[in-house]
Write a structure and sequence with these properties.
homodimer; 15% helix; globular; Pnp Oxidase, Chain A; 7-stranded antiparallel β-sheet; 13 strands; alpha+beta; 39% strand
């Protein structure tokens, strides 16, 4: 195996380090976060850090990098309290990736990509049309991570829309059926195939 | 699409809600966290919440659920400051899932599964033998998430071991070549195939 020490990592070319460290923790979720400003300008941006935090109450979190593009997303969330999380499926990856380009706040990424917005249930933030899992979220809190200036945003799930045929009888969403993708590193998009599901694990004698 | 409101979610059967809410945020990383107690007893447990936090310095985080099994992991980390993160590949999923069973702290999951430990570079915590990406981490901080009692643990990467043939020239680890799996919900393990990688996105005219 190749062995990189901390000194090796610190001494790397920046791009090499970004590619390596972004892929070393494993696959990441692939979601579009959509918001709307008070002025009515929509914003949508790809995030690979959305994480399940709990089911009761239903909570999720995501991480904002200090130097990262989608500050518009955060500004809108702070002012309107709501945003949506929308799964990226295989046909959306090119448009989804393009939302990481640095557009000014008065430009909607919905106008610069093949992505379309839809509004429903009087929710202020737009959902991404065609996304097979859509979550309407309300901002609840944030934690400043002083180690590198990231912000962990925590939100409650208020609305959950799922395409009919992807849910099993026990509640499980088959992300394979939804063709939801996953992110490898900074820029790789991969499509998973289910290998197996397991029973609740109990100790062996 | 099916529409679940917050009231619907709160009123669900517990297992149904766990399956639904655990799968609605998308695919999760699949890692084994391994530690060793001061008494020398090893511990290994599956985690789906390991998240990239930054590359410079190289930081990762993971979330401990208040009601979740692997308190041994946390106790060992607090006392010894170190742990390892090890990718789960397709041949390891059954053993990896079994580490979620509730064993007492004086029992090593390495003795109850087909998983084996290995020690290297004088690192106090064991690595999982055969894992194709292994990370030696040092505890740095924790944040108590008051919304549901979870703890976000933040750690620095001190050692990174990668199987030779999975790394591309630009640093990117091909998790497809590593056969690293991803987690769907509580209990589903899936194997991704790379669709595409994209250039750094720049605004369109």
């Amino acid at each position: 195996m190749k062995h990189y020490t901390r000194a090796d990592i610190d001494g790397m070319n920046k791009i090499f380090r970004l590619n390596l460290i972004n892929s070393c923790t494993g696959f990441k979720s692939a979601n579009l976060l959509a918001t709307r400003s008070k002025d009515g300008i929509s914003n949508v941006a790809v995030f690979s850090s959305v994480t399940h935090l709990g089911s009761n109450p239903p909570l999720l979190g995501f991480v904002l990098r200090p130097t990262t593009v989608p500050r518009n997303t955060f500004d809108n969330i702070k002012k309107t309290e709501v945003f949506t999380v929308n799964h990226i499926h295989r046909d959306m990856i090119s448009d989804a990736h393009h939302t990481s380009a640095k557009y000014d706040g008065d430009i909607s990424e919905f106008d610069k990509t093949g992505l379309s917005e839809e509004f429903k249930n009087d929710f202020f933030a737009p959902f991404v049309k065609g996304s097979r899992v859509q979550i309407g979220c309300r901002y609840q809190n944030e934690y400043f991570l002083k180690e590198n200036g990231c912000i962990l945003v925590i939100a409650q799930i208020e609305h959950l829309f799922v395409q009919n045929d992807i849910q099993l009888n026990d509640g499980f969403l088959s992300l394979e059926k939804a063709e939801t993708v996953t992110v490898n590193g900074l820029d790789g998009y991969a499509l998973p195939t289910l290998l197996d599901r397991f029973e609740y694990a109990r100790p062996r004698e």
